[in-house]
Amino acid sequence: MILNSNEKATHLDQDKIFTHDFNVTHTNMFTTALFTFTNVFLQVRNDHVAPIYVINLLISDLIQFCCMIVEVAEPEDWKINEAFFSIYYFGLMASVGFMVCVALERYLVIACPLWYRFHRTIKIPIAVCVMVWALPLVFLLPLIYDVDYDILKIIWAVFFLLPLPLFIFVLGGTLKALSASRVPSDEKRRIIAVLVVVLITYVLLFLPSIIWGLAEEHSYNDTLIDLSFTFIKFSPLADLFLYVFIRKGAVDKILASLCCCTMESNDIREGLYQKLS
């Protein structure tokens, strides 16, 4: 399709407006997230708690945001863009790994409380974190050696697909083990909230990228490509919900009120059933 000069000017103006709005959105997003991340990190230090996986998840999110700043700056040198593209996906893959670690840790608290208590040493989380940081390097090797683009998409889609059944298993196993667990009720509510948030955000944000990478007939669908890249950019912000639910405080009251409402509705249903029978 050949465009005349007026049509070209119109498309150029639209691209400039879109780019400006995109840049402003990401700049505001980074400022808000950086302030929230700093606040959460200071709260962790004040409580003398060391949630190692959460802190590493925080670092991986900050890496992604720093790469977004470079994207907003639009450097002219393509080598800089390529380098920060690799760094961005390194941080993204690491964040997925630490989301898995957070979910598994919450599961062990409920399903294997004794094992978790006696094996809760600093050495194990540090070793796991080193492995999680090293794993994305293996998956980025095809990108460094200029492997075919279609193969790269499949590799990344498989990487993002693997945690999904694990999240479902962890949530189901946690719900099953709740009845026999002696963990305090507020801690149970917080753990379930964390696992539900992880599963929902992962499905919403990463499923378009998984479909785009594995479905050949939709590989060049512009709408699916835009959705996959846009949703993934919100992954660091989605992790903020994890920090909120992991923290003790006002969220416990909200979760407690929701549970109380559920219990009251169940009691009312049981009472009506007994009267009718």
UniProtKB/TrEMBL annotation:
GO terms for cellular component: plasma membrane. The keyword Glycoprotein applies. SUPFAM superfamilies: Family A G protein-coupled receptor-like (SSF81321). It is found in: Membrane. It is a multi-pass membrane protein. Pfam families: 7tm_1. Its main location: membrane. GO terms for biological process: phospholipase C-activating G protein-coupled receptor signaling pathway; positive regulation of Rho protein signal transduction. The chain crosses the membrane at residues 52-73, 85-104, 124-145, 151-171, 191-215, 227-246. One of its GO terms (molecular function) is G protein-coupled receptor activity. The keyword Disulfide bond does not apply. It comes from the Eukaryota. Keywords: G-protein coupled receptor, Glycoprotein, Membrane, Receptor, Transducer, Transmembrane, Transmembrane helix. Residues 27-243 form the G-protein coupled receptors family 1 profile domain. Belongs to the G-protein coupled receptor 1 family. This is G-protein coupled receptors family 1 profile domain-containing protein. It comes from Lates calcarifer.
